[in-house]
Structures are given as C-alpha cells and as structure tokens.
Write a structure and sequence with these properties.
The complex is a heterodimer of chains A (230) and B (507). Chain A has 230 residues and is mainly α. Chain A has helices at residues 2-17, 21-41, 48-76, 88-109, 118-136, 140-161, 167-195, 209-212, 223-229. The longest helix of chain A has 29 residues, at 48-76. The radius of gyration of chain A is 20 Å and the shape is globular. By secondary structure, chain B is mainly α. Chain B has a domain at 273-507. Chain B is built from 19 helices and no strands. In chain B, helix 8 (207-225) packs antiparallel against helix 10 (243-268) and helix 15 packs parallel to helix 18. The radius of gyration of chain B is 22 Å and the shape is globular. Chain B starts with a helix and ends in a 6-residue tail after the last helix. The chains are: A mainly alpha (230), B mainly alpha (507). Chains A and B meet through helix 3, helix 5, helix 6 and helix 7 of A and helix 5, helix 6 and helix 9 of B.
Chain lengths: 230, 507
C-alpha cells in the first residue's frame, strides 16, 4: 500500500518534469496499472466484484486509453510539450510544494483518525498534479492527460477514505471516465485536422475579454481572416 | 428492476436506432416518438402511478417531478423545432482516422442520436436518488452533449466543445470528490446513500465532513450550472451549439446540475450549522454570477452569447433565492420553470434569426419587425419575459426573492440584486431594440447588397417563417405569461412540497 502510494507520487513528479509526450503517456499507463491494483492490496478481500473492477480499470486506464492517446500523438507528429506557462524545473518544485500541501490536507482531514493514510496523500497529490497540468500546459493532449491524472486522484482518494459505492455505481463511474477521455481523444484528431496544431493557447476565436480591453473595433474581423493569419 | 428504468432506457434504445438509420425522415419520426413517449411516462410519474420499488436508487419526490416535467416539455419543444432546423443530409464527412464507422460520418445521425442519449442522461440525473448514480447521470450529460456542440464541425465549435468537455469534466470530477466526502460524513448504520436516507440520520452526520462535501459539490456541479467564475465554458458552448441544442443546454441541462447541488443541500438543510454555510455560499455565488453576467451582457456583440450570459444571470438569481431561504426557495424553484420556458424559446427564435441572416452579430441585424414579423414580435415578448417585466412569471419570482431579502433585513444584498437586474435589463434592451427596430437592411456590413434569394425573401419583403419555427416559442411564452397571472393548484402544491424538502416556506 505504502509503496504503491510512493510510486504514484513519483510518477506525478515525473509527469511534471517531463516534456516528452510519449513518455508521459507511458507514465500514465503505469499509473493506471497502479491504481488498478490498489483495491486488491487495500485489504478489502478478493471478492469477484473487486477483481472485475480492478481488471476493467487496468484494461481501460493502462491499455485502451494510452494506446488511443499514442495514436493521436503519432498522427499529430508532435513529440514535446512546447514552452509551458511554468517551466519544467519550476513545475517539479511546485509539485513538491503540492505534495506537502496534500500531506497537510490529508492530516487535517483525518485528525480524529489514528493514522494518516499514505494513499490519501497520494490521491490529493494526483488531484493537484492533474489540475496543475491542465492549467499550465498548452497542448490539448497534455490537458487530456491531466484530466486522467485528476480522475485517478479522485478515485485513489475515494478508495482510501473507504467510501465505496456498490459495484454497479463504481462500474458506471469508470465507464463515464473512459467515455470522457475517449471523446477527448476523438476531438484531438479533429483539433489536429482543423488547426494543424494541438495548442490550446491559440484557442482565441471565442473570447469576450477583448471587449474588456476596449478592443471593440476588432470584433468585425471575420473569422476567415483569423484563420488565414494562423 | 424498477419501472423507472424504462424512462431512461427507452431514449437510449431509440438513440442507438437513430445512429444506424439511413433515412433522415425516419430519424425525425424517431425523435418525435421518443419525446412523446418520454412525456407520457413523465405524466405517469407526476401523477404518482410510477414510483420506485425501493428507496435505494430512484426517487419521484416533488423536486424530481418539477425538474423532470421541465426537461420533458423542453425536449418535446426542441425536437419539434429540430425537425425544421436540421438540413437534410449532406455528403458524408471525411472518415475519422480513429474510428471508421459509417454512421459517424453523418452529422445529422450523430446529432439526433446524441439528442436521445442527452435526454436519457438528463433523466437519469433527475430521477436518481443515490448520489453516486446521480453523478454518473450528470457526467453522462456532458458526454452526450459534447457532440451536439460540435455539430457544425468548424474551428469555433471545436474550440467550444473542447472547453466544455475539459472544464465540465474537471468540475464534475471535483463533485465526485465531494460525494466521497459526503460518504465520510455518514455513520455506518445508514441504509441508503440518498438524500432521504441521510436526512433520517441527520443527528448522526459529521458536520465538518458535510461542510467540506458541500463546498466541493457546489464548486464542482456549479461549474456545470454556470455559476461565475466557473462559467467560462457556457457562453462558448451555448453560442456555438445548434439552436435546438442550445435551448436544451440552457433550459434543461443547467437545471439538472442545479438539482444535483440541491440534493446535497437537502441534507445540509437538516443541520443548522451546515445550512448557514451553504446559504452564505449560495448567496455569494448567486450575486457574483449576476454581476459578471451583467457586465458581459453590456455591449455584447453576439446575440446568442448574450442569451448565454443571461442564463448565468438567472442561475445566479436562483442561487440567491436558495441562499435566502424561506419563501425565496419556492420562488427560486418557480423561477427555474419560468426561466426554462422563456430561455428555450429565445434560443429557438435566435435560431430563426441566425438561419435567415447567417450571422450572430447584433450590429448586422436591423428591422426584424419588418422582415420577420412573427419571430420579432415573439423576440420582443421574450425580452420582456426574460428581464422580469410584470405580467410574466419571472416578475413574480424575482419580486418575491427581493421581498424575502428585504424582510430578512439583508438590505445590502437586496440592493446589489436589484442593481444587477437593472444592469442586465439595460444591456438587453439595447441589443433587442437594435435588432428589432430600424429600417430593413439593404446592404450588408461590407456595403454589398444583400442577396435576398439567399434569405428566402418573399415579394412583400418578409422572410418565410415555417410554422414549426415559432409554434414552440408561442406556446412556451404563453405558458410563462399564464404562470405569471395564475399558478395552477397542482403546480403550486408541488412547488411548495419541494420547497419544504429544501427547508423553505410555501409560496
């Protein structure tokens, strides 16, 4: 249990510091595997349902989705994350700070319990890493990865809090997450086709902020011109 | 197996059939069949003929009845409207690199199929009592509606759909975290993880966990409701989606997410300490949403975005009402009904204007009263209704909320609330009057004469309006007007019942 939590935390730090997208996807696949076996080692026994859930989780999160994201990546021909809003070095530092914050929150939340569960800390850390990635990275693919990490974090935290729902609900949650990332994958293909890049910071056709800047004159500009400028 | 599964599974079945149907006509018929069957089942549920077998999964209490009827009615209206809105099949899209299935290439098949799935997901989120099941429903609405937003398959709609999917998914993931926390607040002896199941054990709930849970749920689902500052996806998605989908997104979907928050609030309302915090947060988010939407409606250049911001404002009004408590809770629930009717009509009318003029820019449209007589009269009536002018239902609700604020001596909040309402009124007045009044346009913004053939202009200078394009808005706006003058007894009773569930008073 503790070793899995440690590995999860390490994989997050790795994700924060790496610019190579292919490696990041592999890391996510590894993370998916760790999350998948977490219910098996958390001491809830080996009922049929636990095993089915674990198997579904591993197939979805560490095989199917990474394969699909890899395909999207190969299609787009990019290999690296471009200049993120916060550099990779600084990201790792922020990651360490986030880890401390996660530890603090976990200990606050479990004040009246006897032990602070390491997987709860890992869960919060995954959640923060996911949010951090979505906010600071520019590639749409990295944002999808960030969402997967976030979702892993929520799952881990829920598991370590011991708040389990019935089998069908757990399965439904897994299915929703799977379809969500799957849709993101399909859209990555379309973004690639339409924009010739998968950078979200160049998503600026829809914004009201130019209004605030007093830039009202430019609103006439036809979209075709904007597209031509790219 | 509960009979309630039928109302969820039926749209899924028709949706799958739609995806694989080649003929556009059959797909239209399926859309109508689905909405009519859904309405019929909803009527049975509201009469109490269909009730869940056990408490563990589903509920048909007053809250469910209100929101389910809104959704079903709006879906029926939107599907009537979609019959004329969707153009017949165009040539197939480029094959997708990932999945080469023939039905995915047909835009209309995907759109109509996803409409059915969207309905199923919304229904699931409304009738489910189990918090986990409800989460699945709300997340499924996001997934089913993303293809709807991406219907036009251009850059802008892609950008809107991507923002929608990412922002809402993150928000809803946080809500799941909140639900895990909620499970922590619950003592072991609780049988059902549902609002009623938890309320029974209100004295044993752990308040600290409940508070954390409510904050997470409010922020998480609040993203989907469109509370500022998490509303950023909303104007993009609502303006880029095809009009029948915008009408559903704004009128039905936002309510589903709001209901998800209300279900957790229902538990919080049992415990005074948590209820105080929850009310304060509702008031805060409500006023911030109203302020932000007021600012962005001023000088808004795009009339569909204006309607989207107006949805943010009205969600703010409702949150403010729930936060104030007492009679305002009932008023906010009634406001949800009126807002859904009016906003969906406005989006449909905006769709008429858009398909005639092919632009969403306010400044390029003048003299609607001369070119589109029916649409423009309804458009102005919709303006009066959405800004809460007296005969309409919205006036009554907005006034009761203000009254509650004054009676409970929240003068500052009341003043701010009034200020933002006025701000929105002025902003919308400018836009609606620019569009409806003025001379008929003869040249477009580049100075070239407008191609009247393209606009389907008739000899007397008006644009042809298909009856299906305005029949739904007429009915919905008339209903909003009627509700303002006289609330039928059964509706009033249901609202009061729902208000009591949420710890409020009768209207």
């Amino acid at each position: 249990m503790n070793s899995i939590a440690t590995l999860l935390a390490l994989s997050c730090l790795f994700l924060l510091g790496s610019s190579r997208l292919m490696l990041a996807i592999n890391m996510i696949a590894f993370q998916g595997f760790l999350i998948g076996i977490l219910p098996l080692v958390s001491g809830h026994g080996f009922s049929f349902e636990v095993i089915i859930l674990a198997a579904t989780g591993i197939i979805m999160k560490s095989i199917a989705l990474p394969q699909m994201l890899k395909k999207a990546l190969e299609k787009s021909g990019t290999k690296r994350e471009v200049e993120p809003y916060i550099s990779f070095g600084a990201s790792i530092l922020s990651g360490i700070i986030l880890l401390f914050i996660s530890g603090w929150i976990a200990s606050r939340l479990t004040q009246d319990e006897t032990i602070v569960s390491s997987s709860l800390i890992a869960g919060f850390f995954l959640l923060f890493t996911g949010l951090f990635t979505i906010i600071t990275r520019k590639k749409a693919l990295t944002q999808a990865l960030g969402f997967l990490v976030l979702e892993n974090g929520v799952y881990t935290a829920g598991l370590s809090l011991g708040s389990e729902f019935s089998f069908m609900v757990e399965l439904g949650i897994l299915l929703d997450v799977f379809v969500g990332i799957f849709l993101m994958g399909i859209m990555l293909f379309h973004i690639d086709k339409e924009f010739d890049h998968i950078d979200t910071d160049r998503f600026d056709a829809l914004s009201d902020l130019e209004l605030l800047n007093g830039n009202i004159l430019n609103l006439d500009q036809d979209t075709d011109e904007e597209e031509g400028a790219e | 197996m509960s009979t309630l599964w039928l109302i969820i599974l039926f749209p899924i079945l028709t949706g799958i059939t739609t995806l694989f149907t080649k003929s556009h006509k059959i797909r239209k018929i399926l859309l109508l069949i689905c909405s009519v069957v859904h309405m019929a089942l909803t009527v049975f549920i509201c009469q109490g003929s269909i009730t869940p077998a056990t408490e563990s999964w589903f509920t048909t209490d007053a809250l469910t009845k209100i929101f389910l009827s809104i959704t079903s009615l709006l879906y029926f209206g939107a599907s009537l409207y979609a019959l004329t809105y969707l153009k017949p099949d165009e040539d197939g899209d480029q094959p997708s690199a990932l999945l080469d299935l023939s039905f995915l290439r047909n835009k209309n098949a995907v759109f109509m199929g996803c409409m059915h799935f969207f309905l199923a997901a919304m229904t699931l989120s409304i009738v489910s009592a189990h918090f986990g099941l409800q989460w699945i429903g709300v997340e499924a609405t996001t997934l089913a509606s993303t293809p709807l937003i991406y219907h036009h398959r251009n850059k802008k709609s892609l950008e809107a759909a991507w923002k929608y999917l990412i922002i809402c998914s993150v928000g809803i993931a946080l809500a799941l975290m909140g639900i895990f926390f909620l499970a922590m607040a619950v003592p072991a002896q609780v049988e059902f993880f549902t609002p009623r199941g938890l309320s029974k054990f209100a004295g044993y709930l752990r308040t600290d966990w409940l508070q954390v849970a409510f904050i997470f749920v409010l922020v998480g689902y609040g993203t989907k409701v469109g509370f500022a500052p998490m509303h950023t996806w909303l104007p993009d998605a609502h303006s880029e989606a095809p009009s029948p989908a915008s009408a559903l997104l704004s009128g039905a979907l936002l309510n589903c997410a709001l209901l998800a928050i209300l279900r957790v609030y229902q538990v919080c309302a049992e415990i005074p300490a948590v209820q105080t915090l929850a009310s304060e947060l509702f008031v805060l988010f409500g006023l911030v949403s109203m302020a932000i939407s007021g600012i962005f409606i001023m000088h808004q250049a795009d009339y569909k975005r204006m309607l989207a911001y107006s949805s943010v404002e009205h969600m703010g009004v409702m949150a403010f009402g729930f936060g104030l408590g007492k009679v305002a809770v009932a008023a906010a629930l009634f406001h949800a009904i009126c807002h859904s009717l009016i906003k969906s009509s406005l989006f449909m009318l905006a769709g008429n204007i858009l398909s005639a003029y092919q632009t969403k820019k306010v400044e390029k449209i003048h003299g609607l009263l001369r070119t589109m007589p029916v649409t423009s009269v309804l458009w102005l009536a919709g303006f009066l209704a959405i800004t809460g002018t007296p005969p309409f239902g919205t006036f009554m609700t907005e006034f009761s909320i203000l009254k509650t604020a004054v009676e409970s001596r929240n003068y500052l909040f009341g003043a701010l609330y009034l200020l933002f309402l006025v701000l929105v009124f002025v902003g919308m007045l400018t836009i609606f009057s620019t569009m409806a009044l003025g001379k008929k346009m003869t040249v477009n913004s580049e100075g070239q004469p407008i191609d009247y053939k393209e606009l389907n202009l008739r000899k007397d200078g008006t644009i042809y309006e298909h009856p299906l394009q305005y029949i739904t808005p007429i009915i919905f706006l008339a209903a909003a007007l009627y509700l303002g003058c006289n609330i039928p007894e059964p509706i009033l009773q249901t609202i009061n019942e729902a208000s009591a569930i949420l710890g409020g008073k009768a209207l």
